[in-house]
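Attaching the record inline, Q. Sequence:
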Amino acid sequence: MFPDSSLTVYPRHQPHFPLSTPSNSMETSQNQPTWNQLLGSNNWEGLLEPLDLGLRELIIRCGDFCQATYDSFINDQNSRYCGACRFGMKFLLEKVMLIGASDYEVSAYLYATARVSLPEAFIFHSMSRECWDRESNWIGYIAVTTDEVSSALGRREIYVAWRGTTRNYEWVDVAGAELKSAKELLRPQQGTSNTGGSSSSGNSDDDDDDNDVKVMLGWLTIYTSDDPRSPFSKTSARVQVLSNIKRLMEKYKGEKVSIAITGHSLGASLAVLSAFDIVENEVVQPDVIVSAVVFGCPGVGNEEFNKQVIQHSNLHILHVKNTIDLIPHYPGRILGYVNTGTDLVIDTRKSPYLKDSKNPSDWHNLQGMLHVVAGWNGADGEFELKVKRSLALVNKSCDFLKAECMVPGSWWVEKNKGMMRKEDGEWVTESPAEEDLPVPPSY
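Structure, as predicted:
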């Protein structure tokens, strides 16, 4: 049986403004960290053990932004829109039923392609002759707090959410684990530009220098590749995110702005790269905090990359990892990778609601991690839910909950898998509403 108190009693929780408390004002108490501290201005010192409630809520919020990318991505190759987002920008957060969806506006969609031959664990392609785009996939979005919410908070919050792979562990053996020079991401010399262009899959002489800043080839390729044939990825995901952040910083000039970038699995790696890129290339002023809150992140770069990250005082990375998850150990130190950022190590085995699963995909499941964050009280503490969060969310895309919870596995599915019956009785794939049709970015 489950602990009775865990079933019915929760602390007070404000889903729409979980962090709009006096802790965000100039006057704070020892028990209420500032917004900047929640974003890692002191690398989360004193906030992880025990896990601060405000930080706990921020982590869950970021995780929910990540989950929106999974819940809305079309991976059915029978659909002509395979690889696209199921919903248009205006109603994305509402249609994925994000708590507090009306507090945010989606400002941009992000698209990616790959110039090297990557398997379909990364890029999905429709089998239809009338597919929406043969070169690109939707890879994430940018959301911003509304004017009303920003006024109440006293700051403008910008979130970038990167989509991870939806094919479990298939990508591990084929991702291109070798380290490649990240020279194109580094701050350029005066009078040159280093925020455009596309990646080449070949090796350069720089790759032979162990003192170079290097990152994983697979992540770099997805982040920096473009394809002129596609109206969605004429510019790389990198150029898209940097140009949109520049646009938003100009739009909200004079306001206090923070940037949180989040992702899970593959998306976590892209979050780390883009957070570094934004700060390294001075897309924002040094007083703007750029924080990456990532989940189950594989290795991103080498020791020199880590040194480059650390030198930026406004760049902070928090990695939430399940202690039994295998993905954060990939590709590993033997290949030259080192850990980047501050770790919050949790253990899904602590929750009385989760099965003693032997499935590595469950150990890596995002909703399983968020459930444990909601009740985490340290490695030596008892699991006790501190944030009201539906248990059913755990089983959105897996079957990790114990049978006693009475929640079906993998229950988040599109009605009839996107099929509809016409007046003549024929069943066909339903076309998206006009508001949900893919629209190429403005260049």
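Residues 1-29, 199-205 have pLDDT under 50 and may be disordered. The two ends are 57 Å apart (CA to CA).

More tomorrow.
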